[in-house]
Amino acid sequence: MQHHLGGTYSCCHKGFIIVLHNEIAENQHQADELQCGFKLLHGQYQIERALSSGGFGITYLARDSLDRRVVIKECFAAGICYRTQGLVEPIEPAYARQYKTVLRHFLREAQWLARSVHPGIVGIHQVFRENNTAYIAMEFVDGVDLVTLREDQPKRVTDTLMQDVLKQALGTLAFIHDLGILHRDISPDNFLLCDDGTVTLIDFGAATGRQTSGQTDRDAVIDPMISVKDGYSAHELYQPDMPHRPSSDLYSLGATLSYLVTGAPPPISQHRLDALTAGDPDPCLELTDGYPGFNRDFLASIDKALSVLPGVRYQSAQEWLDELQVDAPAPVPTRAIFSPDVEPLQVNAELENMLASLVENTNSGLVPAGPKTSKQRQTAAPQTQFDQPPRQRQLVDIFGDPIGDVDTSLKEQDTASSRKRPVPAPSAQPDNSAAQQTQPRPQGFAKYVPFPLRRLFGGANSPNND
């Protein structure tokens, strides 16, 4: 399957390189893409062909050392750098600082992708630096981008497919927005549609952290001509000093859906803003009344997302999702409690009398709960029989073994404890070894019980345990 994701495409066939130059490559009189067979990271990745070329880099189809298909994205800022002897360099010294900013932002893209683990976002394998630039190794997604879908398979663009694409895209945007990430490059060529219907968002090259009024992301300040896409970018994305919010991504998503419906991107947002400022009609026509093949509410939601003023648009992906799900589905009928073939039990007078008699007999022996009086406590107290000696309880050790003679048991435990204590240094005190030998040898588990535990249970002191 051919993947058309941009204006530059190359392939290798029988050892020859066929390159279709973009405008920048023609001006530079050289091809930008790496050749088929070029190896990266000491041979771990081998380039097969280029897939696309964008403002921030070139994307390649490659194989890794395990012969798996992967996608390699190379940081190659169109218009400010070129390739010489395999190395990527700024075109002029004046672009050196901007190239470093793009390179730093490219590495930030790897961080955004690493944080955005989601079924609707392309996965990342590795990031590395080589050839005076940087590379990101990502998973290969076998799908078709929405540009190719609209151009080559327009009959697939149905109302059902469009609504499914919208719901999946909104779920992905809600996820990254909750992480504090703005994509800022939502467009048809950055969505891949797989055969199973999964929609995958790719290319986080323009991503940045969420901004509020008065805040500026240092890595977000890139030449607007590189970071925006005419027809799909909201007007505030053309101005780095203006706050970028989730509504900016939602505008771009609305423009993407508008392209799928009409076959052309909406007018440039700056031109729309200028027209409204001058009091002229908005050059972007509403979709609601012009495309009967699509759900009217669905088209109205696209029109709302494409509002020029950020405050009029959806402020979050969840808000858009909630509006699409206003009409709740009909509840699923539950299974009947009674079978239709079984008639409910009829309670007659005879059965009612039987139940009442049963309840009365059951409750006759019950005593209402409540605080007992002193007389009730005296009646309930057991009578002590002084004429009979109290029954002695059988003593047991901590292991549950019965103890016949408490003194003998304690002496056995003392002897067992003394065997575990270190031998004291010789002293002038009398030798008690003979007395120790006369003590009986401990039996069972008692020899493992330390003396402090016996003291806790009231055992006598041993001469060998302090």
From TrEMBL:
<dbReference type="InterPro" id="IPR011009">
    <property type="entry name" value="Kinase-like_dom_sf"/>
</dbReference>
<dbReference type="GO" id="GO:0005524">
    <property type="term" value="F:ATP binding"/>
</dbReference>
<dbReference type="InterPro" id="IPR008266">
    <property type="entry name" value="Tyr_kinase_AS"/>
</dbReference>
<protein>
    <submittedName>
        <fullName>Serine/threonine protein kinase</fullName>
    </submittedName>
</protein>
<keyword id="KW-0067">ATP-binding</keyword>
<dbReference type="InterPro" id="IPR000719">
    <property type="entry name" value="Prot_kinase_dom"/>
</dbReference>
<dbReference type="Pfam" id="PF00069">
    <property type="entry name" value="Pkinase"/>
</dbReference>
<feature type="region of interest" description="Disordered">
    <location>
        <begin position="363"/>
        <end position="466"/>
    </location>
</feature>
<keyword id="KW-0723">Serine/threonine-protein kinase</keyword>
<feature type="domain" description="Protein kinase">
    <location>
        <begin position="45"/>
        <end position="326"/>
    </location>
</feature>
<dbReference type="GO" id="GO:0004674">
    <property type="term" value="F:protein serine/threonine kinase activity"/>
</dbReference>
<feature type="compositionally biased region" description="Polar residues">
    <location>
        <begin position="429"/>
        <end position="441"/>
    </location>
</feature>
<keyword id="KW-0547">Nucleotide-binding</keyword>
<keyword id="KW-0418">Kinase</keyword>
<feature type="compositionally biased region" description="Polar residues">
    <location>
        <begin position="376"/>
        <end position="387"/>
    </location>
</feature>
<keyword id="KW-0808">Transferase</keyword>
